[in-house]
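A quick aside before the break. I want you to see a complete sequence-to-structure record at least once, exactly as it would be stored in a machine-readable document. Don't worry about memorizing anything.
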Amino acid sequence: MEELKQAYRWISQQPMPPVFAPHDVEEARAWLKEKNHPGSGVLVAGSGSHWFIGGLPDKVSDILWLRRWGRILDYSPGDMMVEVEAGCPLGVLSRRLEEEGQFLPFLPFHAPDSTVGGTVAAALESPFSGELGGPRESLIGVEVLHPEGILSHAGGKVVKNVAGYDLCKLYCGSLGTLGVLTRLVFKVRPLRGGRSSGLMAFGTLSDLLSSARRLRDEAAPAALQVLSGRLRAAAPAQLSEAGWILAVRLLDAPATAAYKRRRIEAEGNLAAWLEGDEEELFWKDWSRQQRELLAPGNGWAALLINTRQANLAQAAADLESHLDASARQLSLTGSFQRASLLAFVREDEDLSGQVQALRQRWNLNQDSLILWKGSAEVKSRIDVWGTPSPLKVLQKRLQQTFDQHGVLNPGRM
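That is the input. The structure line, written in tokens, reads:
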């Protein structure tokens, strides 16, 4: 409860409202039905670790805490399917899957205490997501509790069971504004072999992207993670002066991994191969540094830029000149048409104005700049999403269709 209180204090200057932690879905159904009226506001919580994403909660009267919904309900390694309750911690699920040599590629490394439901609702990802898919690609079934007390279902326990629009995807990234996720079903992937990571050093982002495209097409790595600034410190000492680092991670059987390693080495920018404990330590250090940067109240804000690959180098340069981005993390998508750049910057009085200036500089109909993490004070001075007006209208209509009185997570979208 204390961690939940700390998380709430960072996103709201109001006293924390009453917290309700139901034992099961039926108890939650009856309670939420009573709260379904104008003026009511229910903030849904797993662990509260990613409440910083989205707009400031507005007029919250109650908190629905899913801490008692932490079970793995059904796991069939042979069918490569797992069903969990929304409150299941990521660390618990990851350890169980690893016992069977399987994993979910989108589970974030930095947040073992976060819940599965919150991770899907926030559309969080890991370095594997670009090549192996994010939550939208892994989620095949959901059970959702709506404010009227209705339970709806979409998808199921097999992959090919959707006719028409796949509603599972609609809930990914909705921040709980369309319903309370209660159960989730995922297709899992095998850990195909040993793990190794090649670290490549580049002077410019443009050179890095050229190499990354070739490696993606010719070596098909499990992850292509770009690091710079403070996040670069996870790398070995010989890379301390590198402008940009590309971490190429392989999950393959020995023969396949040997071929891919030769292809990576032929690229010419390889600085180090990491294997075994050294490789695991590198990713743990990177995860720890990211977790520290994302911790509430530490003076760091995070900007999430989604842009076309052709604009990526210019966007990174603009961030550096306008905001002195001290840490940057870049996730490359499988299609390589778009990319998400996460930049950490210091919070100061000029941050909101600088964000507005960058938005005006870029074409936000094709690119987006989101204040992904920020204190309540910073978020109160700026439109967190910077969403074009037509999309805002669509979002509003969608929320009204699923939540007539705007009860669930008001203000976050």
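Two observations worth writing down. Residues 114 and 340 are 22 Å apart (CA to CA). The longest strand covers residues 194-202. We'll return to this after the break.
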